[in-house]
Amino acid sequence: AKRNAVVTRQSAVDYLGATHVICTDKTGTLTEGKMAAKLLVGVCRDQKSKEEGRRTEIAFYPLRGLNPNGGVFLSSELSEERCKALDDGTPAKSVQGLRRLTDPDKEPQDAAELLARAAAAAACLGCYGTKIVKDHQSGAWIAQGNMSEAALRVAAYKGGYPEDSFACRELRNNNPRDSVMEVLFSPKRKMSATVHQLPSNRRCATLLFGKDHTHFVILKGAPDRIMGNLSAVL
């Protein structure tokens, strides 16, 4: 207000409230002005083992703004040669030595595949208010809703949950959102939470919950606010 700034979107105030450094350039030269989910870092362990959890890095690729076409892979398998093949339009299944972690035609075989599918499902459920659609006139992919959630929605698409697909509808029908218990994002809280019901089999994608559990929560927000509430690797 002191500098006569005009706020045209309320979400801009939320973003600026948690901003420390702003890096700018001429949009279109170096950036597209769109966020993208690039890397997922998870800690997984076998419940029957006494070993500590192992760090697993999963990559969403290719990164083309809001274009949701691509897949989810182990970061260690994305060599420069394989990335070039994907950038050139080669299907992931045709790239030698590259495994798609969310292949819908295969059952998950290891912790990386279980983690990838659980994360994609969480992104699909947690970003219920945002859609990624293709503009019929320009052919460009656009976001309808929150731009920060758009990046996660693209990640969900790459993970096997395209908008309005059977997989997406089935997931949301099996794990309906409880809007009464939802916690909305605020600049002070720096996080948000959606609460979802569990079906009778106590499953959400590759996650299996205890027989006494009825709901689960998906958190989104600043790492320092979320990590401080974690007490164990399950």
Strand-helix topology:
Elements: H1 10-17, E1 39-44, E2 54-61, E3 71-74, H2 80-87, H3 111-126, E4 131-134, E5 141-144, H4 147-158, H5 166-174, E6 191-197, E7 203-204, E8 207-208, E9 215-221, H6 223-227
Helix pairs in contact: 3-4
Please give a quick description of this structure.
Helices cover 25% and strands 19% of the residues.
Shape: globular
| Secondary-structure element pattern, one letter each | HEEEHHEEHHEEEEH
Oligomer description: single chain
Strand order of the largest sheet: 1-2-3
Mean pLDDT: 85
Helix/sheet category: alpha+beta
The helical percent reads 10-25%
Features:
234 residues, alpha+beta, three-stranded antiparallel sheet, 25% helix, 19% strand
Give a structural overview.
- The protein has 234 residues and is α+β, with helices and mostly antiparallel strands.
- 25% of the residues lie in helices and 19% in strands.
- It has six helices and nine strands, in the order H-E-E-E-H-H-E-E-H-H-E-E-E-E-H.
- The protein has helices at residues 10-17, 80-87, 111-126, 147-158, 166-174, 223-227; strands at 39-44, 54-61, 71-74, 131-134, 141-144, 191-197, 203-204, 207-208, 215-221.
- The strands form four sheets. A three-stranded antiparallel sheet has the order 1-2-3. It has a two-stranded antiparallel ribbon with strand order 4-5.
- Helix 3 packs across helix 4.
- The model has no long low-confidence stretch (mean pLDDT 85).
